Amino acid sequence: MKAACSAVLSTLLVILLSCAPLFAQAPAGQAQQPEFVKQGQQLMREGRLQDALTLFRQTLQTMPLSPQANLGAGIVLDLMGQGEEARKYFSKGIDVSGTPEQKAAAQRTMAMSYAFEGNCKKTTEYEEKVMRYDAEVKNVFQQGEIADEAARVCIDSGDLDPAYKWYQTGHDTGLGEPDIKPARVDLWNFRWEHAQARIAARRGNQQEAQKRVAAAKAILDKGSNPEQTAFFPYLKGYVDYYAGDYKSALEEFLKANQNDPFIQCLTAQAYEKLGDKDKALEFYRKASTATSHNPPAAYAVPFSKKKLAELAH
């Protein structure tokens, strides 16, 4: 649902893009990323997580104060399901960050580490630190983005009350942007309706969920944020899924972003509910191989790996 640091972006280490360019492309005129970062990214894209971890650990033997190497090792460990070990590296990455911007980026990786374990409380604890930094630099839009990111983790972990609170915080904070444009107002209102529809669906309140779906569609139909249209099939499918209409849910999920591990995971769940084990396994396998370190992967990777183990028997 996010524009710049979207939770649905599959770009590797996308959560760092709004903060320090630790794993992002360095802007023109700045030093390029170290070679080990590029190599680590490539290994992860190839699914060679152990090799990537070895690379980052070897780098740390000679560069123990490297934020990139510490965060890289932590991210790989999260993808391998070793969160406790990962957070040792994230803590070090936070400690050795040289600027407030870098520290906020490292804190955001720590938040996502807890997201991989479905820990809403600890995720929001670290996201709040990032929001404080964004407040200090007067980046109101990014404050709202981070609140929504925390909310996304909470709803995916089933913590609906804090999810509602953080989505509302994101909406209200975002609308406080100075000289906000009408299209940006529509964006925040669309996200808020989208969130309320999903929360209502999870609570079993289909009437409220459908009301919010209609409200979200009305905002989309204004045409002020055409890029958000891609998120509507996901919303309809989500609401249908929690209403028990798995056939309709599947149809909608197949219209959504097929590169998003969260959508892949939902598609697998719909196939599983419909009794198609082979297709469920196919989509769980896709979702399990995600190498992003963001909310979609934080939900999809561990859940899909668990499902693959269950369905193998």
Quick rundown:
Helices cover 69% and strands 0% of the residues. It is mainly alpha-helical.
Please tell me about this protein's structure.
This protein is mostly helical and 313 residues long. The chain contains 15 helices and no strands. Helix 9 (182-202) runs parallel beside helix 11 and helix 11 (231-242) packs antiparallel against helix 12 (246-253).
Element layout with pairings:
Blueprint: H1 35-45, H2 49-62, H3 67-79, H4 83-96, H5 100-115, H6 120-136, H7 140-156, H8 160-174, H9 182-202, H10 206-220, H11 231-242, H12 246-253, H13 261-273, H14 277-288, H15 295-311
Helix pairs in contact: 1-2, 1-3, 2-3, 3-4, 3-5, 4-5, 5-6, 6-7, 7-8, 8-9, 9-10, 9-11, 10-11, 11-12, 12-13, 13-14, 13-15, 14-15
Q: Element order, helices and strands?
A: HHHHHHHHHHHHHHH
Which structural class do you get from the secondary structure elements? Answer: mainly alpha
**Unreliable parts:** 1-31
| Main sheet specs | none
